[in-house]
Design goal:
Chain A is an all-alpha fold. Chain A has helices at about 1-35, 40-50, 55-65, 70-80, 80-95, 100-105, 110-120, 125-155, 165-180, 185-200, 210-220, 225-230, 230-235. Chain B has 2 domains: about 1-55; about 60-110, no CATH class. Helix content of chain B is about 75%, strand content about 0%. Classes of the chains: A mainly alpha, B mainly alpha. Chains A and B meet through helix 1, helix 2, helix 3, helix 4 and helix 5 of A and helix 1, helix 2, helix 3 and helix 4 of B.
Chain lengths: ~240, ~110
Amino acid sequence: MKAKTDALKAAFPHTIPIFTGFIFIGIAYGILMNSKGYGVIWSILMSLIVFAGSSQYMAITFLTSVFNPVYAFLMALMLNARHLFYGISLLEKFQDAGKLKPFLIYGLCDETFSILCSAEPPKGIDPNWFMFFIALLNYFYWFLGTAIGGILGSIVSFNTEGLDFVLTALFVVIFVGQWKSQKDHKPAIIGVLSSIICLLIFGRNNFIIPSMIVILTLLAIQRKKYEYDNREEIMQ
Amino acid sequence: MILSTPQTFVILIVVTAATIITRFLPFVLFKNSGTRNSFINYLGKVLPFSAIGLLVVYCLKDINFFKHTSGIPEMVSVAFVAIIHYWKENTLLSIGIGTALYMILVQLVFV
């Protein structure tokens, strides 16, 4: 038990930026859902079951147009394809997580992922429980924000146009945070430029998969150079 | 609500399924080989940074430079968030003020 409380205490500070971000984006989501006629119960159900912010925002489009589950599934699959990247990045870290592993994978949203790749548990803290509590706290914040937003949305009403920018702002924040923490900016630049070029060529509805292919190809090409540049780190 | 309750549930389920499939697939595919494959290890180190870059572009995909606003509200707000976050590193401040700025721009300035 003590090991778990210690892991929770160690995990909490890492989740504070996500707490603020998720409460805010969750509230915005609850309010938006409300403005489309979906009450707080729907918002909470979505957040607890889907647990993927950008997909939930995208799903609003499908809830407010003609019923088309196949297209909704394909769009969500494409939008979520980035999770394949996250899984590959965390194969090793989750390797010994045992019974905690299914929830760690289920809760692998963008924000939890961004913490898990950088945060190291302090000495003496069980790394698996540490990761588990990071994922669980973020899950809870998302639920909490959505619930507050759903209730707020039914009480107050205002012009919500532009409120969905919270999601963009969050990703820009994560991007800048990563940029400052790294000396080698090539992977970040490859990500942005490949996506912009594919967006221009394939259009906004079809560019995610081509972007992923271009990113993988460019990363594969510059692997030798990366390993040469970072040889000291790799040797350790 | 435009969709009926059962239809809403179907959308909920397909979006959940798509999310779960993409999150679990790598762990199913690379169950045994993951840590021994050095290319996968290399990807694990560099992909996170490329992936967030892709996400930022994804969020901005609906900008239309030929519309009357020419994407100015988006560009201004993203630049603002990036600069203020680089400078202050306060998540709530960056997201809160950035979103407020964007809402003001699209609701009051570029109408």
